Amino acid sequence: MSTNNTGRQDVVKEAFVRYIMAGIDEMLPITPALQKFNNMPRSSRLRVCPSRMVDDVQDMLNTYRRSSDVNGKAIDSPLPVMFIAFAKETSPIPTDRGRSVADFQTLNLNETSGFYQVCMQHKSWRCQLVFVAHEHETATAMTDQMRLYMQRFKNHRWQIPWHHDGEDFETTGTFEDGFEPMDSVIDVDGGRKNITIFAWDLTLNYVLPFVGDKVTAINATDANIQVKP
């Protein structure tokens, strides 16, 4: 049986990583390096970095090299690769942009769950997505294809799965209003010329549900927590 996971930030992180991985899976191998990238194990294409590394691409790259030392030479660590890091802090979204539910409300978790006491925090979370390749053409192809994936209407949001008291339900994560992923060029590694790094700064908006006791009898509900795409 699945463990109750409502109210946990790591569920949001895992949902967004799955969303990014779905975009990586669609990348067309238009360069030899991207063909190599597509042939790597899925877990090797995107590395989730500790939160302290957000905004520190050099540290991301150094840690990656230490963990994937090839033939005793860290410089041979396989590229291309992508990194993602989430900031340590999350922030409540101002009430003029999204309403949290502070008082417990009586809600359905899904269409058949029955009723529970639920409150919800509307939050934002900054993260950084980094693309690393030896040549500019491959790095640009990676960012272009990931941008196109995110720009599809159906991909403007992603589902966050929750489990409580044997019931499964979802809320929806979105990007900050007006989001347009832009490439920031990062110079690292003592000015080496044979590496290209682009970074995206992203702000995720999401609802964090906190689910309390089940209500055994009720005549009417306030709302339904289930959010459908």
Number of helices: 5
> Largest sheet at a glance?
9 strands, mixed
Order of helices and strands: HHHEHEEEHEEEEE
Overall pLDDT metric: 85
User: What is the share of helical residues?
Assistant: 10-25%
Q: What structural class do you assign from the helix and strand content?
A: alpha+beta
Distance between the termini: 26 Å
Based on CA inertia axes, which overall geometry fits?
elongated
**Rg measurement, Å:** 20 Å
Unreliable parts: 71-75
Q: Assess the beta-strand content as a share of residues.
A: 35-45%
Number of strands: 9
Structural description of this entry:
It is a single chain. By secondary structure, the protein is an alpha+beta fold. It has five helices and nine strands; from the N terminus they run αααβαβββαβββββ. Strands 1, 2, 3, 4, 5, 6, 7, 8 and 9 form a nine-stranded mixed beta sheet that branches. The two termini are 26 Å apart.
Layout of helices and strands, plus pairs?
Blueprint: H1 9-25, H2 32-39, H3 42-45, E1 46-49, H4 57-67, E2 81-92, E3 101-108, E4 115-133, H5 136-151, E5 157-164, E6 167-175, E7 184-185, E8 196-215, E9 223-224
Parallel strand pairs: 1-2, 3-9
Antiparallel strand pairs: 2-4, 3-4, 4-8, 5-6, 6-8, 7-8
Q: How is this structure best summarized?
A:
Helix content is 24%, strand content 37%. It has 229 residues and is an alpha+beta fold. Strands 1, 2, 3, 4, 5, 6, 7, 8 and 9 form a nine-stranded mixed beta sheet that branches.
Keyword list:
229 residues, 24% helix, 9-stranded mixed β-sheet, alpha+beta, elongated, 9 strands, single chain, 5 helices
